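Entry 12.
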Amino acid sequence: MHKRVMDQPEADATAEDLMNAVEQMVRYVRQSATAGGLSTAASMALGRLGREGPQRLTELARAENASQPNMTQLVTRLERAGLVRRTADRTDGRGVLVEATEMGLEVYRQRRAERMHALERLVGELTGPEQHAVRVALPALARAVQDRPAPS
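Predicted 3D structure (tokens):
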């Protein structure tokens, strides 16, 4: 595995260095969220429902890159835990929506706060110029992701 020399300028970071950094940061921030004792898949699905609101199970499965049977099992577990509920789709009487309950939204908010606190701790350990660079670069990367067409 390629390891960068400590005094090598950050501008020389390779794509592999950046990928490793993103993976380490995401893993650290995700592991910092413990509210509700959720698996990563459950946390991601609940997070999507918390951010975007109710969704059809098929949409949720597609968005989370999961099979419909796996998402059905996950939603059933979340439902048993009181974190989500299934409701009728008002626009299509045959359809069913999955939505976060109040308890689910509270767990989502707690987990989000835990992740934000973990990220703040990480950024707080950086120098002033590094903090500025992160605060500029991360939103720019998020914009680039949002502007890309969805993968097919």
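Annotation: Strands lie at 55-56, 84-89, 92-100. Helices lie at 15-31, 40-52, 57-63, 68-80, 102-124, 128-147.
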